[in-house]
Amino acid sequence: MQLGSSGVTVGDVIAVARHDARVELTDEARERVAKVRRHIDELAASDVPAYGISTGFGALANKHIPLEKRTRLQKSLVRSHAAGTGPTVEREVVRALMFLRAKTLASGHTGIRVETLETMLAVLNAGITPVVHEFGSLGCSGDLAPLAHCALVLMGEGRAVGPDGTERPVPELLAEAGIEPVTLAEKEGLALINGTDGMLGQLIMALADLQNLLTAADITAAFSVEGLLGTDRVFVPELHEPLRPHPGQKYAAANMLKVLEGSGIVASHRVGDDRVQDAYSLRCAPQVAGGSRDTARYALTVAQQELAAAVDNPVVLDDGTVSSNGNFHGAPVAYVLDFLAIPIADLASMSERRTDRMLDPARSHGLPPFLAEDPGTDSGLMIAQYTQAGLVSDMKRLAAPASVDSIPSSAMQEDHVSMGWHAARKLRQAVLNLRRVLAIELLTSTRAIALRAPLEPGAAASAVIADLDGRVGAPGEDRFMAPEIEAAEEYVASGRLVRTVESAVGPLN
């Protein structure tokens, strides 16, 4: 993959962060970066103060730094800003962070030297991962602490993990990869740490995960409808696009109708059923799932716009002017990170309600209590629903927005911050929780469907039950549930659930 004028896509970020795609700088980008650097060198030699070049930072911006102290200035900036604490952030987050920073550095708007940018790419390509901590970013002036921990490694300092996942001294890791540590010049410390890259990278990965999970949610909802003797008639297209033209709702309803196609269980009660309407958690599933889809689509638009940005302060304009700005403020990204956590919490909440309905003999239309083999002696899936309820409760807490909070910093110079990094961290947990909630609905609904025998399910449920081959969701005596839930989660996370259903009924939305 090449960094140059063609820009970076969401797929590029995923390829580098999760699949270790190599990144190279194009000749065009190299020339552009070198040309802009010459403007910075001229300013550095001038008597005119320039922020980040010949001055201090933040509230110390009015402090002029003499020429002989500027190398120390850059080192001091990175060292002092690498002040994170708490648990270590995931490898894929750090790789996305570094790649997206390199993308901005290659834009020719930051004043970085070519050799410094090349060193960052070399570290990325060598599979060396700086140790970045959970806490440290306020999502304004960029993700300062996380990026500073990465910049420190370029200097041959700090902490890092090698490609084998083992932490070793940074000089040893760099030497092994044939990488020379850099001595930062004017403006470079600031250019390396002043961006929204951490929160953007996490938004992109959350969207990639949700693409799979939103389709999986339609599948598990349809399986629950099947297991609960619900109707598929509420998912027919004439009830959706013509009457309420939200695209996500249309796609979710179409998915559910397709998954239920040919179900002998659904067909068995079309005549003689005295129920007028299914419960909301069944009947309104496309409306809730559709809202989640539409929110994700909007969030993707924001992510794509931010990918096209060159976030730094000060920034070098095309005419060579170096200008202060506020583009490092993470608000646009923070808002959608928060926004996404709301509909997926509701999606999980509806999933849990369907699970509970299948376990309650008063509402499950003939299923045994808790889907147990011998109710009383066996508890069935009683506590699996507890686990699901705990996950949903956590998601409701995670849906509280981070971006409405602001704690002033830097002696009131940075008096309003976005908390976008915090919004990103909680969204990652919310997405993981959703995956686990859907896994529990999957094992519950497949067991409920199996208990409807001799009635035959549709091709989708039949294919999934056969693919699981008794590992997940099969009726029987009580057994160790945790491994079964874990297996169901992996089945959902890997995309195998969606692929198995599509192999049986055709492509889903």
From TrEMBL:
One Pfam family here: Lyase_aromatic
Any single GO CC term annotated in Swiss-Prot or TrEMBL for this entry: cytoplasm
A Gene Ontology molecular function term of the record: histidine ammonia-lyase activity
Catalytic activity: L-histidine = trans-urocanate + NH4(+)
EC number: 4.3.1.3
Subcellular location: Cytoplasm
Keywords: Histidine metabolism, Lyase
InterPro entries named in the record: Aromatic_Lyase, Fumarase/histidase_N, HutH, L-Aspartase-like, Phe/His_NH3-lyase_AS
GO BP, one annotated term: L-histidine catabolic process to glutamate and formamide
Pathway where it operates: Amino-acid degradation; L-histidine degradation into L-glutamate; N-formimidoyl-L-glutamate from L-histidine: step 1/3
Domain of life, source organism: Bacteria
UniProt xrefs under SUPFAM superfamilies: L-aspartase-like (SSF48557)
CDD domains: PAL-HAL
Similarity annotation: Belongs to the PAL/histidase family.
Name under which the protein is recorded: Histidine ammonia-lyase
Native source species: Kocuria rhizophila (strain ATCC 9341 / DSM 348 / NBRC 103217 / DC2201)
Lineage, top ranks: Bacteria, Bacillati, Actinomycetota, Actinomycetes, Micrococcales
